[in-house]
Design a protein that fits this description.
19 helices, alpha/beta, six-stranded mixed beta sheet, four-stranded antiparallel beta sheet, 66% helix
Length: 580
């Protein structure tokens, strides 16, 4: 490895420290440097202890033995006074930094654009949040401290060797520099392997997440390819790990060979010089001990440098995620000053996920306060995309959206979403209790308000029949409840939010007849007094809507109430016929 490459790695390590705040960085450096210095002095003091004891054995001078004991006792005392508090200081700064990193990543996920979230697998996020952050923890607490200790021991050993016998020190230093050069030759290859390993591990996490999420389907259909894909990725991770282990083994073999040669050289040459009276045996022993420290430090430095590559790869993946483009605070143009009475209004709205394939084309619609509006159409007509635009998940390409008479741009996205309650086709419940899931609609709600919302959503009676009632755990994604029960809890959550505008995205399409009956009753309670826009799969659910918008290929082709649209006998009538 050339000097510019080493400088580049040093810069990457320094940039990795940017995850820390200035205060924590100061605490980390002070704690690590002081603890490292105490450990270095303790380790190097053994060479002086050995030198004094060997010279005592040779000369029988009792003061030399006392000198050895004083050095040993002083170094132990210094280590026990300095190391614990300063080790705690830098470990504490690391743990606080990791908490901050996880919070930043969580907050970042909340602000990422919908387009990025939709094209990125959940397993990728899990890998970055868990594997990459854990790698940083290992680096901060272990690897960087070990590297600092190796540098301090190396410098200290060289200085002491020059003090004891500068000629030996020069020869030893040249040999060890050659060893260091050989060690660093492995670093670039190992970095590439660690990059590959992290990427493959992320894919492995994705497959395992899919496997767990679809475990019932895997069992039912005996979907062998899922396991085969997981097995293939697992083997790839194993192969990369074996390649890394092979490189490390080769590095260890080279380092040990150089270590034994230099150690034996010092013993042989030192013994000859002692025999000719040119050096004391204590000096030979001290040089041998220092040589061992120096050699091990140089050996470990190469290995530690290769381990840092894993951390740099993990840090880079975290930085990439934190650098992803976020949702704007506001979406749309707020320049318009005209006022409208509509609760929701779209004027000549156009939108495309990709420029060459428009999804919404020149759509205009108006829903007055308290009205129930339905959007119907075949699959792919753009119904669900309209919901995403109203929720601010995507910016429109042209046109204007207004909420409660004001343009989108006069609201923040948080304000827009606070005005809207949304019930999707498949209700999502978080791991926790039924009461917790309902209270997400309004975290400040009392238990009595939660129960009132559940009663209005026709969920109270089945909740009361459960063993732990409102404290019943729902399981992962609400797995312990039926589809109708999950949907009614989601409706109770929306009721508790008490937003003036309600969006329903085919909220009953996946339910059986009995569940649909109860969910429809709950929806009627939820819709009362609110402006409602619903996407309907079953056209029987839109017959009572105040206005119906019929979409085809991203365009509103018809609008009116149920009877007038049937009488016109066009697209809506044909959809009614298909439903029948």
């Amino acid at each position: 490895m050339k000097a510019p490459e080493l400088i580049g790695y040093a810069k990457e390590v320094i940039s990795m420290m940017n995850f820390m705040s200035r205060k924590r960085k100061f605490q980390y450096y002070v704690g690590m440097l002081t603890s490292g210095a105490a450990n270095t002095l303790f380790i190097l003091s053994f060479s002086l202890v050995v030198q004094s004891l060997v010279n005592y054995a040779e000369s029988k001078d009792i003061s030399l033995m006392y000198q050895a004991l004083y050095i040993l006792g002083g170094s132990i005392l210094l280590l026990n006074i300095l190391s614990p508090p300063f080790t705690y200081l830098f470990h504490r700064s690391v743990e606080l930094t990791l908490v901050s990193i996880r919070e930043r990543m969580y907050q970042k996920l909340c602000r990422l654009k919908a387009s990025f979230l939709e094209r990125t697998h959940n397993g990728e996020f899990l890998s970055r949040m868990n594997n990459d952050v854990s790698t940083l923890e290992t680096t901060y607490c272990g690897i960087l401290f070990a590297m600092l200790l190796e540098i301090m021991i190396s410098i200290g050993s060289i200085v002491m060797m020059f003090v004891v016998h500068w000629q030996f020190a020069c020869v030893s230093l040249l040999i060890l520099l050659a060893s260091f050069y050989i060690s660093t030759r492995f670093v670039n290859t190992v970095r590439a392997m660690y990059d590959h390993s992290l990427q493959t591990t992320a894919k492995l996490t994705e497959k395992f997440t899919d496997f767990i999420a679809g475990i019932q389907l895997v069992k039912l259909f005996r979907i062998r390819p899922i396991y085969t894909q997981y097995e293939t990725l697992n083997e790839e991770v194993t192969q990369v790990a074996q390649q890394i282990a092979h490189k490390k083994g080769m590095l260890a073999a080279v380092n040990h060979f150089v270590s034994y040669i230099t150690f034996c050289g010092i013993i042989v040459i030192g013994s000859l010089l002692y025999a000719y009276g040119m050096m004391s045996m204590g000096a030979v022993a001290a040089l041998a001990v220092l040589q061992i420290h120096l050699t091990h430090s140089f050996m470990n430095f190469g290995t530690t440098l290769s381990l840092v590559q894993n951390s740099l790869a993990g840090a880079q993946r975290i930085e990439e995620m934190l650098a992803e483009e976020e949702e704007p605070r506001r979406m749309g143009n707020d320049a318009s000053t005209s006022v409208t009475e509509a609760a929701v209004e779209l004027n000549e709205v156009e939108f495309a996920y990709h420029a060459e394939a428009p999804v919404i084309c020149n759509v205009s619609m108006q829903v007055l306060p308290g009205q129930v509006a339905a959007i119907v159409g075949s699959s792919g007509s753009g119904k669900s995309t309209l919901i995403k635009l109203l929720l601010g998940f995507y910016p429109i390409d042209r046109g204007d959206i207004r909420i409660q008479g004001k343009p989108f741009g006069q609201y923040t996205l948080a304000e827009i979403r606070q005005l809207i309650a949304y019930v999707p086709q498949e209700a999502f419940l978080f791991t926790g209790t039924i009461e917790e899931n309902i209270r997400y609609g309004n975290p400040q709600a009392t238990h009595e308000e939660v129960v009132a919302a559940a009663k209005a959503a026709y969920a109270h009676h089945f909740i009361e029949e459960l063993p732990e009632q409102y404290q019943t755990p729902v399981g992962e994604r609400g797995a312990s409840l039926s589809g109708g029960q999950r949907q009614r809890i989601a409706i109770a959550r929306a009721l508790l939010k008490n937003a003036p505008i309600l969006l329903l995205d085919e909220a009953t399409s996946a339910l059986d007849a009995e569940s649909e009956h109860w969910v429809q009753k709950a929806l009627q309670q939820l819709m009362e007094g609110r402006t409602t826009i619903l996407i309907a799969h079953r056209l029987s659910t839109v017959e009572d809507a105040d206005i119906i918008f019929v979409m085809k290929e991203g365009v509103i082709v018809e609008q009116g109430d149920h009877q007038s649209l049937l009488q016109e006998g066009h697209h809506y009538a044909s959809l009614q016929g298909q439903a029948g």
